[in-house]
Amino acid sequence: MARFDGRVGIITGGASGIGRATATCFAAEGGTAIIADLQDAKAAETVQEIEAAGGTARAYHLDVTSEAGWAGIVAFALSEFGRLDVLVNNAGIGDSEAIEVTSLETYQKVVAVTQTSVFLGEKAAAEALKASGHGAVVNVSSMFGIVGGFGTSPAYAAAKGAVRTLTKNTALGWATEGVRVNSVHPGFVDTPILGETDRELLVATTPVGRIGRPEEIAAVILFAASDDASFMTGSELVVDGGYTA
Ligand code: NAD
Fold first, then answer.
1. What is the DSSP string of the chain?
2. 8-239: what CATH class?
3. How far is the C-alpha of 116 from the C-alpha of 180, rounded, in Å?
4. Which residue from 57, 60, 148, 176 lies 20 to 30 Å from 209 (Cα-Cα)?
5. How much distance in Å is there from the Cα of 91 to the middle of ligand 1?
6. From the alpha carbon of 193, which atom of ligand 1 is closest?
7. What are phi and psi of 104, to 5 degrees?
8. From the CA of 89, how far away is ligand 1's center (Å)?
9. 96 three-state secondary structure
10. 89, 65, 103, 79: which is closest to 138 by C-alpha?
11. Most informative mutation of 37, 117, 163, 193 for ligand 1 (most atoms within 8 A of CB)
């Protein structure tokens, strides 16, 4: 029996990078992956790849900043599959502006997609996760939710820090409700979010001498989502090649 047999999970930002690797590995271990993203074509391509490998997946167009969108995706999971067991709040955006030049609009946009989305997702999924019997939430923060993030924008660092403490707050609130909530804090990982950032600079600041692969973060996300982590809640799992050590 595979770890996620019979379990249904929503993975936000599941069409790209870390989310895509998480959805793919979740489905490979028996789970039904609902890929929630704005990028419809990439989400559909991910579903095709999963199904070609014998897994089960669906694409769902979700803007993680929309409360109505969240109500819709939870209703979709329950009507299509009758349950929701795993929520991976992974969608996020970054920017690299210094505080002096960051507009309020940019700040609020980064916070909405990266932080408020976690609140909306947890709130919308709460009852379904409690009914699951093995409900698990994994919130993808960043190593810059732990340390200040030299060269990273204040909006991103503030949002990722809030994801860390929101995780702990919800974990305590649901500790006796059968739902575990943990955060994962990646270091530099080779995905489109890095944009034009000089990869050599990132390698040079990462103690292990390379940046991470999406699958290396997915493995930790799925550990936290699985019954292997049944006694773990409110924890922060740092996966950064030694950056914050
Ligand atoms: P990515 O750009 O490959 O994936 C992000 C996904 O989120 C994209 O598919 C995008 O369409 C989706 N998305 C963006 N806004 C959305 C919205 N409003 N609604 C729904 N989906 C939306 O980047 P990634 O590296 O895979 O990022 C995944 C998570 O990991 C993010 O939260 C990111 O902050 C975090 N992270 C990444 C790194 C890194 O170096 N790659 C490091 C630390 C943390």
1. --TTTT-EEEEETTTSHHHHHHHHHHHHTTPEEEEEES-HHHHHHHHHHHHHTT-EEEEEE--TT-HHHHHHHHHHHHHHHS---EEEE---------GGG--HHHHHHHHIIIIIHHHHHHHHHHHHHHHHSSEEEEEE--GGGTS--TTS-HHHHHHHHHHHHHHHHHHHHTTTTTEEEEEEEE-SB-SGGGTT--HHHHHHTSTTSSPBPHHHHHHHHHHHHSGGGTT--S-EEEESTTTT-
2. alpha beta
3. 19
4. 148
5. 4
6. 2
7. -60, -35
8. 10
9. coil
10. 89
11. 193
Low-confidence ranges of the chain (pLDDT < 70): none
pLDDT of residue 95: 83
Whether the pTM exceeds 0.95: the reply is yes
pLDDT value at position 235?
98
- Residue 156 annotated among the catalytic residues of the structure: yes
For the chain, the domains span 8-239
Q: Locate 170 and state its tokens.
A: 């919800």
- Cα(94)–Cα(154) distance, rounded to whole angstroms? 10
